[in-house]
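Objective 1.3, modelling of assemblies. Example input:
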Amino acid sequence: MLTISKNRLQALTLAAFAGAAVMLRVFDPATSGIFPPCPVHYLTGWYCPGCGSLRAIHQLLHGNLRVAWAMNPLTVVLLPFLAYGLASFSLFEIRGRGLPQPFLRAVWIRALCAAIILFGIARNLPLHPFDLLAPGMMLHL
Amino acid sequence: MFCTQCGANNADTAAVCVQCGRNLQAATPAVPLQATGVVLPPGVTVQNYLVFAILATVFCCLPAGIPAIVYAAQVNGKLQAGDLAGAQAASNNAKMWCLISLGLGLGIIVLYVILIMVGVLSGIHRH
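Predicted structure (tokens):
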């Protein structure tokens, strides 16, 4: 019984990811207004490390790597790893074994955490060239 | 004991893992686990939820996603030191913070949709 509900939960999770991908392909978060704004940016006016990531994924799904990079370079860099990790996780849950994965040492995960935070700080600095990291700024180069 | 394949906690007498069905008797590592450092028996995995922790940080709620990443790092750090029980505990914490972040993120989205509906309805009313 437990396994059935667990499988259903995983199927729902995967369906949610697939649905989100379709929505992001069809609607542009920059113009459509159906995606909620980033709560951090809405409340504080600061860009968070994820600001522009939905716009970046929308552009990626349309093959515009340059615009996607301008929206959120961190997302573009992380997406292949996240996709691989998600595929591995799904396979692990389905057949009990994920994709081959090098053991990621704790120090790398901490470095990643620091990179996300530093990226979030840097893109709010009103100094050139850090201001280029804010969503869309690189399009005006 | 913890399953060497999926990390699920099983009774010490269990013959097969309750979660993934791996044969636990044959899977006992030849070298006993000790906190001596880098020796990680092959095949040992404890889910660290790193992918979900990053997704939660970037998409849902930054403040709740950060502890999820920190716990994900702890899972791998403790695995590296041979501390399976500690890794499992950190794994559970990582999962919990992912869910907290997801909950906060979904809550904000729901709130946003409600606000938009209210806005649209009041707009219709005015005209």
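The first helix of chain A runs from residue 2 to 26.
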